[in-house]
Amino acid sequence: MAKRKIVGVTGIRSEYDIMSSVFKAIHEHDGLDLELIVTGAHLSPKYGLTIKDIERDGFKIADKIESLISGDFASSRVKGLAVQLQGMIQTVTRVNPDFLIVLGDREESMTTALIGAYLNIPVVHLCGGDKVIGNVDDQVRHAVTKLAHLHFTTNQESSERIVKLGEEPFRVYNVGNPGLDRLLNIPELSCEQLSERLGFQILDGEPFLLLIQHVISTEIEHAYEQMNTTLEAVSRLGIKTVLSYPNSDAGSQEMIKAIEEHSQLPFLFISKNIPRLEFVNIMRKASCLIGNSSAGILEAPLLKLPVVNIGNRQKGRLHAQNVQFVEHEISSICDAVSKALYDEEYKKIVYSCENPYGDGQSSHRIAKILADIPIDNKLLIKEITY
Amino acid sequence: MAKRKIVGVTGIRSEYDIMSSVFKAIHEHDGLDLELIVTGAHLSPKYGLTIKDIERDGFKIADKIESLISGDFASSRVKGLAVQLQGMIQTVTRVNPDFLIVLGDREESMTTALIGAYLNIPVVHLCGGDKVIGNVDDQVRHAVTKLAHLHFTTNQESSERIVKLGEEPFRVYNVGNPGLDRLLNIPELSCEQLSERLGFQILDGEPFLLLIQHVISTEIEHAYEQMNTTLEAVSRLGIKTVLSYPNSDAGSQEMIKAIEEHSQLPFLFISKNIPRLEFVNIMRKASCLIGNSSAGILEAPLLKLPVVNIGNRQKGRLHAQNVQFVEHEISSICDAVSKALYDEEYKKIVYSCENPYGDGQSSHRIAKILADIPIDNKLLIKEITY
Amino acid sequence: MAKRKIVGVTGIRSEYDIMSSVFKAIHEHDGLDLELIVTGAHLSPKYGLTIKDIERDGFKIADKIESLISGDFASSRVKGLAVQLQGMIQTVTRVNPDFLIVLGDREESMTTALIGAYLNIPVVHLCGGDKVIGNVDDQVRHAVTKLAHLHFTTNQESSERIVKLGEEPFRVYNVGNPGLDRLLNIPELSCEQLSERLGFQILDGEPFLLLIQHVISTEIEHAYEQMNTTLEAVSRLGIKTVLSYPNSDAGSQEMIKAIEEHSQLPFLFISKNIPRLEFVNIMRKASCLIGNSSAGILEAPLLKLPVVNIGNRQKGRLHAQNVQFVEHEISSICDAVSKALYDEEYKKIVYSCENPYGDGQSSHRIAKILADIPIDNKLLIKEITY
Amino acid sequence: MAKRKIVGVTGIRSEYDIMSSVFKAIHEHDGLDLELIVTGAHLSPKYGLTIKDIERDGFKIADKIESLISGDFASSRVKGLAVQLQGMIQTVTRVNPDFLIVLGDREESMTTALIGAYLNIPVVHLCGGDKVIGNVDDQVRHAVTKLAHLHFTTNQESSERIVKLGEEPFRVYNVGNPGLDRLLNIPELSCEQLSERLGFQILDGEPFLLLIQHVISTEIEHAYEQMNTTLEAVSRLGIKTVLSYPNSDAGSQEMIKAIEEHSQLPFLFISKNIPRLEFVNIMRKASCLIGNSSAGILEAPLLKLPVVNIGNRQKGRLHAQNVQFVEHEISSICDAVSKALYDEEYKKIVYSCENPYGDGQSSHRIAKILADIPIDNKLLIKEITY
């Protein structure tokens, strides 16, 4: 029997970090063939030209679609979405896959879902059903759900939300978060190895923070101030801190400005792009993750890493007990970090928390479904349930 | 107080016919200013270059955005959507309106909704919540609902469906179908006047059919055959029939081919573009509307016009008792038309039917809401209700 | 040694008719591999969906790039050019050929030349150096010459003009018109065969005209009137006439309108798309070609076919003695046709004319050069000669 | 009489610095109205978001067209050109100007020229006819000449070259370099004022260098190494040096990397964007300009500033005796700088050099021509002269 052809779409490092194990499982499945469309921030030197990681991973690249506009307006993002869509329809027409697969709520999700819907190619959407108020991403995520044909969620709550959105239940699978699959398989680095690769010292037993903070699309005008507040808290705490650059969203230039203004702090180590291997090992060794990265919600529980989530970005998401939510306010941030580092009661709770986002076996589960599910009118013709 | 600036988006005659009375009500409201983005089929000679109608109506045109690809593939539609989006972001950035307003489930709805969502400009969506299975339009319509900020529905059922989709109830208004507003105001033409304008004879008391049939996006490969079946039924019935061209969707070329093959039927009168005035007067005088036009569902009840709806396009929609649903099958079509013309019982039922789509006062209702509703974070930040 | 990879770009039937023998020669050359980018009118049902001919010819298609805007404005053409360019850069980046090859002065030539110039891939341009005043095509053709790296002209005069334009002489080859290669190889059809394929009768010995007339971009507003004048002349002449539709340029819709208004003439046979085989056999049997097709200048001399060229489109081009130039004026057209059909002196001159556009061996000449020429800085870095 | 409407197109600070005085002269002319299309690097925070300068200058902005792709490939530039063209056709269609005006050989020139040619709107091209071998810009500049209707050159040599390119002589005016107009009018800053604005000290009488170096499109792979060599020379010279960032061309990221690696040099002062006022005053006070900026060729003679031009970028251009040309070689650079600073003979020659690029009165000359020249077929229909 002919192999099913799967086209995966990836646009940025943060999402590829989750998807790469899914791509690997598809690539290695006997009944499936994989090609990738690489677009967006992957092709920008400003975000580390991460297409090189994808090429190193050895996946077949169907097309590279340059789409990231060098701009910091909200309009830049829409322009980029349009450019991406205009290129992607050409690729999908040529490759004519059996499935399109994409994750999340960024431009890539929308373009992929639109193409699948209009071309009658089933769209597999990962991480739908999540709820993160206060962000255009939330609108986009649910809109993509209404366009997509299969929904692979990372948790039970999201599966239920998707069914409430009128999706037929047979389309919805709680497969767990595939980001965890790769997490567990990533090799252990010693502090020495890690220090050498990063270019600054991580000492055994020395406490340190990991800081990642992204722009919220409805709070773009506060981007500078939000990053500044966090860095002022870091400054007051005086604890060694590893900072990784924000994503390429509108407003990120403002955040980078705040970072550059703090670049002289002696205990602050700034990196534009931490490769996944180093990143996971930093998470394993860090005392606390601060900012608003989804890694704090999704991955940290499996690693028993305390998280101080600042501001609205992850608010309202299903989370384990390792996460404290605080406002953009210096002393609240400092207090929460102190609790995470020094409160023994709280540390025990974190140590025994369970991850509502799965068990690290998601990727093979996904590949199996893609190989087995019938591609028929039941799958292709969507019917709202009410 | 400064007037609120409204940008309306219109892409095709069939939708403009409904929207023009809304545009008029906005234009005439003291607290509102209107500019239109004219795009898609309006700028194509193939579909009658209907931008001329808009210019004649005297609305300010913010930009003309050519976007219709001369192609009959499903991909042509996506390419056009991308081109439209790439142009429209430029216009909206320049005009920077207080509201964007758009109707339905075509490419225009999606591009408008995406721009509003990313630019944090409230999107007003008309005719959401309807349910028409078996069509990419259905997926697009519900996805647009998830992106838009205000929902003006044409009927109670659709309002309820939108709330079930997780939209906050304060965003949803059942305003009725604004297409009916203009319908009631359109001047009466005598049979003589109508005949002269159309170039063929409509006689007082003589029965005749009005035929409009569009392509279903999931049944593109049957487009030719579906139109052919309908025309064969017309051929067998032998009743005078006025045919209006299908919309510019993928597959429409195939339908046009079938039309051209029947162009020699002596009682068949074909028109590429019937202006609204003539169209409504034809509906007033016709004995029966056949095909799958939404006019049969939405407008015909107000005019007490019997409808024979062929195939899946309008299936499952809320409708009055004037509509009979039949398959693409010659004798079923003929039987239903005969019933509509000659069954006195059924004719009485049609004559007394009520329109679930409103009372012809929708446009002023809409303008008033746009002038009065606070534009604040409650409106701008969407929160899914579960 | 690795084969050289050639990417050919084709956008419309009229140009493909000339290029297909070049593509064939490249495809069959041991040292060369060919892939085609198919775009523009080839993908539009309105222009006969001629990509099917290309698929039938068996060339590898690198990408299909939909780009033709369904519009009749001058802006439609630019929009289409932009869409084409945005798609083509993606394809060329993926395929990364050793040469790009394109013919003429349409949108395809400009997009291909721009991509080659910026990507440092040598661009091979056919039919540059020609001079046709009064048309944006003329500006585009010479601009493409300034961007391209190799110039294959169809005649000595054009080669000399290109050198005068400051191009280094080693870049310029007079290879003759490759359209003639295929012309000579096209099988002979009898009048019976031809009649059957066309659906109307061509009789042995019966005189008939072939009419092809395109829009001039600087005279778009006269498009209707120009076609109308020609058809009025045909009407007065009363000679059997075969008419082929104009190209997909702005204004062509107006010409089509004039054609439709004359469609009732009993001796006029209209075809939207005459396949090449039939077309050449019509040229072989026709008494005279009228209109403004380049076939009259380029191919007719080899077939000893008299031509009446109407208006400015081919004015000033190098031509053999088979061509008479007339204005858009009914009686001038009639007189010239009469001379072509009945003036024995003139007929002798036509019969013995020589073709300044080559000998029918151009394609193999081109393939050989592409296989042999060194690809080095001399080729890649252009130096204006003054 | 109605004012003539002029649309100017500007894409980057370096070009706007020259054009702004032309825009001012047009804006202030009684018979002319000006609107600007602002695009490309002007809208990118990476290049200083220089649209703010334009807004401050008070010109009417017809549209902002985001087009700069965040990428460092040669393809990024073409993609950006396509995006720009797709947006610009919309603006020009709306504004429908009497003239389009643009400068140089960047993407903006090509898009503007194409639109004017296809829309039959006369294109005014500044700085055509220059000759800079070894760069795609050269091909683009001459191609734009073949598309444009009026050529305003900065020197006699370029005017003659344009006529040799087959342009009709009446289309060519040697108006001088308008960049010089503004140069002369820019207020004088004292060393103290300048130091304060720049954030580092410029001392009266203290020698210092100004360094500006851009990427050459055919030598992208050497971008890092070229900048590195120059900075190594600076390092060896040990003279105070003010460095301004390269333009947003492919490869510029590599140059920025080399700059960042030298950022610790105590006598090196780096600026991402030096405003024009400060820039000109730096030129007035600097001892020598090094790198490959066109300012060295075009403006420096008027200011009697010695220039060491490194590499191929300006090679072969008409220049005054203030310019020394050297290779990318450390000791050659050092020698030439020493000669410029310490060789009294040479300093005298520089002091008395004449500027072949005009007298600082170009802008009013241009405005007058645009107001007076007849817009007729002679202007609109181009005829190659051989």
From TrEMBL, chains A, B, C, D:
One Pfam family here: Epimerase_2
Coiled coil stretches, renumbered? none
Q: Which GO terms describe its biological process?
A: UDP-N-acetylglucosamine metabolic process
Name this polypeptide is given: UDP-N-acetylglucosamine 2-epimerase (Hydrolyzing)
All copies of the UDP-N-acetylglucosamine 2-epimerase domain together span 24-370
Identify the SUPFAM superfamilies for this entry: UDP-Glycosyltransferase/glycogen phosphorylase
| An example Gene Ontology molecular-function term | hydrolase activity, hydrolyzing O-glycosyl compounds
Class of the enzyme per the UniProt entry, highest EC level: hydrolase
Q: Which domain of life is it from?
A: Bacteria
Enzyme Commission number(s) of this protein: 3.2.1.183
What are the transmembrane regions?
none
> What keywords are assigned to this protein?
Glycosidase, Hydrolase
| Keyword Transcription regulation (UniProt) | no
According to its UniProt entry, this protein's organism is Paenibacillus thalictri
